[in-house]
Amino acid sequence: MDAPLDTLQRRLGHRFGSATLLQRALTHRSFGADHNERLEFLGDAVLSLTVSELLYERFSGSDEGDLTRVRAHLVREDSLHRAALVLGLPELMRLSEGEARGGGAQRPSILADAVEALIGAVFMDGGYASAKGMVQSLFGDIIQATEADSWSKDAKTELQEWLQARRIAVPAYRISATHGQAHAQTFEVECAVAALGLTELGEGKSRRTAEQEAARRMLAALKASDQPGGPLRS
After folding, report:
1. Which one-letter DSSP state was computed for residue 183?
2. Catalytic residue (one of 44, 77, 78, 203)
3. Would strands 172-179 and 186-193 be described as parallel, antiparallel, or unpaired?
4. Of the listed 40, 99, 113, 116, which one is catalytic?
């Protein structure tokens, strides 16, 4: 293998027996038929399991809700994107010419997916212990440095729980607009609570970030309306 892939394997803490698996993990669907989406599917499950095990070992006194919230923060796109940058994936991704020209090698969603694909590839090549070692090298420090109660509920979770406690149907999210070039897009997402006839908009550099902002605004509006004299109390 060439020097950049050797460097990547050192960063992963795993040397591949199958060069094909490693190449596939770095191949976007735009590049060809032998792309990384199946490995991404597998890696997503392996990541969830390994992070769950590491959190179970680290936070022996925490309940399921706390562990679930910490895991959600660790396996979200933003965290995986940061891991991809640490691994140097932007320079290693295999993309079509059009995708590359459009800035695909810098797109957080593509890089986050590639990290999951690499986890899946390590699992296939070396088994669970190797995959866990890779995940631990990427997330072990932050797991050890944090406290479970420092991870508050994200806005989407808090909004859903607020509505469910009042037996109101959960909200729906949809992209209402996108702005900017493909490699630097801003997403505008609408959060709608149909049962109350309410909508709020949120913006962000990824769909997930925009959804969280829309949920935060919706939750703030609902809490204000739920005060004495507000529409939900009238």
Report:
1. G
2. 44
3. antiparallel
4. 116
- Per DSSP bridges, beta strands 198-204 and 172-179 are unpaired
Closest CA to 130 of 113, 118, 145, 143: 118
Q: Is residue 111 within 8 Å of residue 89, measured between CB atoms? A: yes
Q: Can you give the pLDDT at residue 153?
A: 67
- Find how far residue 95's CA is from the centre of its chain: 21
Decide if 87 contacts 8 (C-beta within 8 A). Answer: yes
Cβ contact 157:141 at 8 Å: no
Take residue 173 and report the two structure tokens written for it. Answer: 């999210």
- Give the span between the Cα atoms of 126 and 14, in whole angstroms: 8
Q: How far apart are CA 213 and CA 58, in angstroms?
A: 30
Residue 17 has phi, psi (to 5 degrees) of -80, -30
Helices then strands, each counted (H, E), the chain: 10, 3
Q: Convert the pLDDT of each residue in 88-128 to its tens digit.
A: 999 999 999 999 999 989 999 999 999 999 999 999 999 99
Is 203 in a helix, a strand, or coil?
strand
Catalytic (active site) residue 44: yes
- Express each pLDDT in 135-185 by its tens digit: 999 988 888 887 765 555 678 988 998 999 999 999 999 999 998 877 778
Domains detected in the chain: 3-149 (1.10.1520.10), 155-225 (3.30.160.20)
Q: What angle do CA 69, 73, 74 make, to 5 degrees?
A: 115
